[in-house]
Design goal:
By secondary structure, the chain is α+β, with helices and mostly antiparallel strands. Helix content is about 30%, strand content about 40%.
Length: about 100
């Protein structure tokens, strides 16, 4: 009985983890344009692998602070995770080293 419970829990956790991360896209790209819109921003990036132009929305406070403080600028290369459906950025990290 304990083995059955453990097996069911493992299956539920693995299915939940797959569903939770299914809608995330990630890319490394260079910023080609930034447009500020009050408490949000629109970031246009050029994908490093495919040279495709991707327009993403910035809505979180920490990334907005980086944009306002000019820590992230046009021409910077970023590692980004975003929601595929809404094109909203989840996480931003600069690829440059020290």
């Amino acid at each position: 009985m304990k083995r059955l419970v453990v097996l069911v829990v493992m299956v539920v956790v693995s299915v939940w983890a797959t569903v939770a991360f299914a809608g995330q896209g990630k890319m490394i790209g260079t910023i080609s344009a930034l447009k500020m819109h009050g408490s949000s921003a629109e970031m246009t990036l050029k994908d490093r692998k495919t040279d495709a132009i991707v327009v993403l929305q910035v809505r979180d406070d920490s990334t907005m602070e980086k944009l306002k403080d000019k820590k992230i600028r046009v021409g910077d290369e970023l590692r980004i995770r975003f929601d595929d459906a809404s094109k909203v950025i989840i996480r931003v990290q600069k690829t440059a080293g020290c």
